[in-house]
Design brief:
This protein is 47% helix and 19% strand. By secondary structure, it is of the alpha+beta class. The protein folds into 2 domains: 206 residues, 2-Layer Sandwich (Cytochrome Bc1 Complex, Chain A, domain 1), CATH 3.30.830; 180 residues, Metalloenzyme, LuxS/M16 peptidase-like (Cytochrome Bc1 Complex, Chain A, domain 1, 2-Layer Sandwich), CATH 3.30.830.10. Strand 1 and strand 2 form a beta hairpin. It starts with a helix and ends in a 5-residue tail after the last strand.
Length: 432
């Protein structure tokens, strides 16, 4: 108990300190907006950026276009080919990479203050003048194709594919972000250039910066890096979609373990009930070592190494998923226990004690997980803007959690788990 109390005390102390972060709103002459936290403790600047438009923007039949474009963004730009670009980045200590999700295209990393002019110039080149050289395209295409082939032998990858296809038929969320062997081979250099022009614009750009840079310096840098991008993107509108539920899907694979996913409806991040749902999930399966699912499946019966649940939230949909991997002979028992626990929280609800423990942990762990490095803080600053959480979200988050009642938590459980779930099982001789 002493260790537990000491840990929680430390987490809360850290959170209080983190909540005092001084966030400045910055707007440049060209209308680029950013959130900035000045910090001269170290001579380092962390930069995080995001554009609307993720893998849902891939053309049908050419899935993986954004994935391929993302891999090529630092494979040469301007007059620098791939080798020269990466050698220059290493020389000046620039660490900056790109990533993509279903709904966004992002970049992030850090640079030395003393090398900021050259570092910002390299980022500018990558954003405005990516080369997309044919040799780099083929090299990245081969790497992605290899991952696609490897994924066909991975039960988790197979389960994710089956889940997408079951939940979102005939919707862009159904498509694979990496594509297929056929689609990745169909992508041309012109497709990659078109995707680049489609997504990168000032209109959906959000920026978070933390470190040794002033407001005035940042304004100049942002206009220089992003000022010549189009004012608005050309991205396709993605429609709202409700996950299709109620299916039992079994896929046989010659592997020792069965991968299990059980999916229910949920709510999006902008719902006023989000924190109630978040607390409910923590109690059921989101709290790794303290949740009901972990206790029943791992601790009491040893049926799986790990079991968890979570809220999957996107711009245009959301769902709740509980999952695990277990030996084939334990599959049916494990699924039954997970469903029983879900039914128990839906019908009997959580307890006051469970809710208080969840609040204590979720409140205290946020700073450790999200605010302990400049890079993570920069990412949070972008998320505040992308999710319209407000500049005071970090400060208000504690109150949002504290305001959740047991009635709210139990209402979410009943709302989510009244539906018949979709169950996807991948493993040896799978039958339902």
């Amino acid at each position: 108990m002493r260790i537990f109390i000491t840990t929680i005390t430390f987490l809360l102390a850290f959170a209080v300190h983190a909540n005092a972060i001084d966030i400045k709103q910055v707007e440049t002459q060209k209308g680029i907006k950013a959130l900035l936290v000045e910090d001269y403790t170290l001579p380092i600047i962390a930069l995080s950026i995001s554009f609307k438009g993720g893998s849902t923007q891939d053309e049908k039949g050419k899935e993986g276009t954004l994935r391929l474009m993302r891999a090529l963004m630092d494979e040469g730009a301007g007059d620098l080919d791939s080798t020269a670009y990466q050698a220059k980045a290493e020389e000046i200590g620039l660490e900056f990479g790109f990533s993509a999700s279903r709904d966004s295209f992002s970049g992030g990393g850090r640079l030395l203050r003393s090398e900021r002019e050259e570092a910002f110039n390299l980022i500018k080149l990558a954003i405005n003048q990516p080369r997309f050289d044919e040799d780099a395209i083929e090299r990245m295409r081969d790497a992605i194709r290899t991952n696609i082939i490897r994924g066909k032998k991975n039960p988790s990858s197979v389960a994710r594919k089956a889940l997408r296809e079951a939940l979102f038929p005939d919707h862009p969320y159904q498509r694979s972000a990496s594509g297929s062997e056929q689609s990745i081979d169909a992508i041309t250099r012109d497709d990659i250039i078109a995707m680049n022009k489609k997504i990168l614009s000032r209109g959906t750009l959000t920026v978070g910066v933390v470190g040794a840079i002033s407001e005035a310096e940042l304004k100049i840098a942002l206009d220089d890096i992003f000022g010549n991008l189009p004012a608005e993107p050309a991205i396709d509108e993605i429609t709202e979609v409700t996950p299709k539920l109620g299916e039992d899907i079994s896929i046989a694979m010659p592997v020792p373990n069965a991968s299990v996913s059980i999916v229910y409806p949920a709510i999006k991040r902008d719902s006023p009930d989000f924190f109630a749902a978040h607390m409910m999930n923590h109690i059921l399966g989101g709290g790794t070592f303290s949740s009901r699912l972990y206790t029943e499946v791992r601790e009491k019966r040893g049926l799986a190494y790990g079991v968890s649940s979570g809220l999957a939230t996107f711009d245009n949909t959301a769902y709740f998923v509980a999952g695990t991997s277990t030996r084939a002979e334990n599959r049916d028992e494990t699924i039954k226990i997970i469903k029983d626990e879900i039914n128990r929280i839906a019908t009997k609800g959580a307890t006051d004690e469970e809710l208080e423990k969840a609040k204590l942990y979720v409140s205290g762990s946020y700073a450790i997980a999200n605010l302990d490095t400049s890079g993570k803080i920069a990412s949070v600053l972008v998320a505040l803007q992308d999710q319209n959480l407000g500049i005071d979200y970090i400060e208000k988050r504690q109150k949002y959690i504290a305001d959740v009642t047991l009635e709210d938590v139990n209402r979410m459980a009943k709302q989510f788990f009244s539906a018949k779930p979709t169950v996807v099982v991948v493993g040896p001789e799978v039958t339902q």
